[in-house]
Write the C-alpha cells for this entry.
Amino acid sequence: MLALTKSLENYFELSRLGTSVRTEVVAGVTTFLTMSYVIAVNPAILADAGIPPAAAAFATCLVSGLGTIAMGLWARLPLAVAPGMGLNAFFAYTVVQGMGLTWQQGLGIVFLSGVVFVVLTLVGVRQAMVRMMPPQLLPAIAAGIGMFLLMVGLNNAGLVQAHESTLLTRGDWTEPRALLSIAALLLIATLLSRGIRGGILIGIVLATVAAIPLGLAAGSEQQPGGALDAVLSLDLGGALSVGLVDIVFAMLFVDFFDSLGTAIAVVKKAGLEQADGQIPRLGRMLGVDGSCTVAGALVGTSTVTAYIESAAGIAAGGRSGLTSVVTGALFLLALPAAPIVAMIPSAAVAAALIIIGATIVGLAREIEWDDIDTAVPALFTMAGMPLMFSISDGLAMGVISFSALKVLRGRASETSWLVHLLGALFLARYVFLA
C-alpha cells in the first residue's frame, strides 16, 4: 500500500500541487456525487430521441467512467467528462426530432463529429481556436443552453404548454405530473441549498419512489430495451446520407465552447494555469474529449464533454488527475444500476432539468451588459436557443451579430478573423437554406 501511495504521489505530482492521496479520493467522490444526476437525466433526454433508457444509462456510465479515468491518467487534470447537458438536448430535439432522423443516424453523426474533433485536435486547430475566439460569448452560450434546458424541463413537467395566441401559457398545475415535478423541484432546491452534494440524485430517487403508487413511473414501459441495445447501433450510412456539414459544425461549436469554458473555469479555480494563463496539457484534454465522443457514439450516447461540476471536487481539495480517476471508477461501479434508470418518471427528470438550467443561466452575470457590442449578441444567443428551440440557431445569431457589430462600427480588427469567417458561414447557411 505504501508503494502504491508513493507511485501515485510521483505520477500525479501530489506534493508539488499541495495535495495528498486522501484529499484526492475525497475530491473524486465529491465530484461524482455532484454530477451523478447525469446517470438519470441523460437517458431521460435521449429517450425523447428513441434510445431505450436502460441502454442510454449503460452508455452514460461506461463512457463517463472510462473517459474520466482517461482524463485523469493522460491529461492529469481534475476534470470529469460525461454526455453533455445541452449537447444531448441538441441531439434529441434538433438532430433527431427536428430533422426527422432515426436515433441510429443521430449516433452516426455524433461519431463522425467526434472523428472531426480528434483530427482537428491532432493538427492543432482546436488549440488555436482557444486563442482566437472571443471570450465575451462564452457565458452567453452557457446561459443560453441553461435557458434551453429550463424550457424543456418546464414543458416536460407540464408547468407550461403551447398556446396559439400567446405562444406559451401556464399548464395544469393540479395534475399529478405537475404536482410531482413541483415537489421534486422544491426538494432538490432545498437539498442543494443545504450543501448536500448529491441533492439532484437524491431528489430524483425520492420522486421516482413517490411516482410508483401514483402510476407515473409506468412511462418506461413504452420504451423497453436492454442495457446493450444501443451498443454499435449507429448508422453511418444513414448519417452520410443527410447534410452533415451544418450539424457537425454546430456540434463542434457547442462542444468546443462547452469544454473550453469548463476547462478554463476548473483550471483557474484549482490554480493550475500556466504562467501565460493557458491550460496545461490542453491538447491532451481536447484529445480525450474528442475520443470520448467517438466512444460514446459507439456505445449509444450523445456528445461527451467536460463537466463544470468538476469544480465541486476542486473545492474539496482536488488538484490532480487522481481526482478524475476516482470519479471515473465510481461511474463504472454504477453500471449495474443502469437498468433501474428506466423507471424514472419524466416529472422527476423535469425538476432536475429546471434546477440544472437555473444554475447554468447564472453564468449570464459574467456578461458585459454595459458594452452594447457584447450585450446584443449575448441576448440573441440566450434568447434564440429556447425561443427557436435550437441551440445551433442561437449560436448562429450570437456569432453573426457579434461579427456584424464589430464590422459596422469599424472595429473588425478587434476580434479574430476566425469569428468573422464563422459569422459569414452561418449567414451563408441561412441564405442557402432559404
About this structure: Confidence is low (pLDDT under 50) at residues 218-222. The CA atoms of residues 77 and 321 lie 4 Å apart. Residues 18-140+223-337 form one domain. The chain has two domains: 18-140+223-337, 368-434.
